[in-house]
Amino acid sequence: MGGEGKVYTLAQVSEHNTSKDCWLVIDGKVYDVTKFMEDHPGGDEVLLSSTGKDATDDFEDVGHSSSARAMMDDFYVGEIDASTIPARTKYTPPKQPQYNPDKTPEFVIKLLQFLVPLLILGLAFGVRFYTKSA
Ligand code: HEM
């Protein structure tokens, strides 16, 4: 098998996405795992779900053994044209809902919460002072 290093586009590899004809892209290389579908310890379903894309992350996430990696040579059919693989979809955090940029109301409330009791206290003293001297 293989070794000729033919270069495939992702579109070409993606055509092989059935249990009777299954190609994978792992680490820049293209593998025809059709004959391996039934023997794969992880099952054929996961292999199928990894078709049509760069399956490197899927493959690595499982933590495949070195013997698993050694088996890959048997399925090698060529290289992937890296420019046909869409750029890694990177996580963009959801936009924060517009956080009130004008902090004034919040600030005024805090100020009032502080001032109003003082005002009442002052008033009480004032009243007491005036009623006493009257
Ligand atoms: C040419 C490609 C692949 C080969 C040669 C391969 C080979 C193997 C081998 C030998 C095992 C047994 C455990 C080990 O030795 O690490 C295994 C397990 C497994 N593989 Fe793969 N694999 C390939 C691709 C994939 C891909 C693309 C996936 C997608 C997620 C996958 C998912 C799994 C899972 C989930 C297990 C664990 C099964 C279990 O422990 O119950 N494999 N594979």
Automatic annotation (TrEMBL):
Protein name as it appears in the record: Cytochrome b5 heme-binding domain-containing protein
A GO MF term: heme binding
Swiss-Prot/TrEMBL keywords: Heme, Iron, Membrane, Metal-binding, Transmembrane, Transmembrane helix
Main location, first listed in the record: membrane
Residues in Cytochrome b5 heme-binding domain copies: 5-81
Source organism phylogeny: Eukaryota, Viridiplantae, Streptophyta, Embryophyta, Tracheophyta
Homology family: Belongs to the cytochrome b5 family.
Origin superkingdom: Eukaryota
PANTHER family noted in UniProt: CYTOCHROME B5 (PTHR19359), CYTOCHROME B5-LIKE HEME_STEROID-BINDING DOMAIN PROTEIN (PTHR19359:SF127)
GO CC annotation terms, alphabetical: membrane
Cellular localization per UniProt: Membrane
InterPro entries, per the entry: Cyt_B5-like_heme/steroid-bd, Cyt_B5-like_heme/steroid_sf, Cyt_B5_heme-BS, Cytochrome_b5
Chain ranges passing through the membrane: 107-130
